[in-house]
Amino acid sequence: MEENTYKPDAHSQDLLSQYRENLPVFKQMTEGLASKLKELLSGAGIMTAAVESRVKTEASLAGKLEKKGGKYAGIFDITDIIGLRIITFYSDDVDKVASMMERYFEIDWANSVDKRKAHETDSFGYLSLHYICRIPEKLYNNPEYKIINKIRFEVQMRTLLQHAWANMNHDTGYKSGVEVPSSYMRQLSRLAGILELVDDEFSRLRTEINDYRRNVQALVASGNLSEVPLDGDTFRSYLEIKPFDKLNHRIAAINQAEIMEVPLMNFLTMFKAFQCKTLGDVDKIRKDLSEASYQIARYQIGLSDIDIISSSIGPQNICLAHILLSGAGKFGVKFMLDTLNGPSESNEQMAEFLVEQAKDLPFMNQQKQ
Q1: Which of 42, 110, 263, 341 is the most core-located residue (most Cβ within 10 A)?
Q2: Residue 70, number of CB atoms within 10 A of its CB
Q3: Nearest one of 169, 159, 219, 222 to 191, comparing CA atoms
Q4: In the chain, where are the structural domains located?
């Protein structure tokens, strides 16, 4: 391969000299910007795959000046010496990042470009949003480092799949320096089209899932539980309305005990085991067996000095009553203990004890009658 014989002219040499003189500032500013962007993204609730940053190397800058050094009067006219890249998981988050950038930084609109809009309709390729920015004084103001507010920097915003495509396309299409036959380029374009479709579908699915969750929350809040299928999201929404609180407070009043709040999501497995299909099914069991649950708890703690109870006592005793009334007996109770507390050698003995303890309670005798 022929060696690069480029020798910078006097103007380019001056720009390279300015670059070397300001390199410590460029590096410090890049580190500060990367840290600040991560902070702002976290504060805005935008989840990202990565925030990358770099300072253009002298060799890279020299190559740029070889092609168009005459257009720059000074080093600060070059807008991409400092470069940052924000990689999101979803395509619609790119616009959220852009909105955040517009809120906190000064955008040089004349030099910024949205390659998503410039993208040709009959081909697929590199999609990205590029902003050229400055740090405004309201964000950073230090009289000793006024240069910070003068330096422009580039921020690229794109999705993880767009980032993957850009890297793969560069590696397979351009890196070798050999012209790739059109048949291969067509295949690359087809693959890029698939990636672009997947990108859009991920965003669409996320929107639909969020809409579904909001709808579920509205149905739960309105009390239309029979219309809500039972799954992890819906059961979590059900727990948010604290359906077992009234029962737990009634149980706590037996000993004037304090209630210690614990997670209740593990009861989802139990209600599914009871063949519950909707939240309405769960709520019916809760209503029908709250009195039985109270009877079990009164027998368990009524003659004790227990002054702290777990918020799981109500739903656990509801499950226990359901198992006993269904005739599942010791094996069903052991399954409950294994599910809620984890498998243990002592669960079989505890199950036998609980079955024996409950057999003479009123709710069991009512069933016999």
Answers
A1: 341
A2: 10
A3: 169
A4: 10-170, 241-368
pLDDT in tens, the chain (369 residues): 445 556 778 888 999 999 999 999 999 999 999 999 999 999 999 999 999 999 999 999 998 898 887 889 999 999 999 999 999 999 889 999 999 999 999 999 999 988 766 555 444 445 678 999 999 999 888 888 888 999 999 999 999 888 887 777 666 655 445 566 677 667 777 777 787 788 888 888 888 888 888 888 888 888 889 989 999 989 999 999 999 999 999 999 999 999 999 999 999 999 999 999 999 999 999 999 999 999 999 998 988 889 999 999 999 999 999 999 999 999 999 999 999 999 998 999 999 999 998 888 999 877 655
Q: In CATH, which of 3.40.50.300, 3.30.460.10, 3.40.50.12160, 3.40.640.10 is domain 10-170? A: 3.30.460.10
**CB-based contact 61:16 (threshold 8 Å):** yes
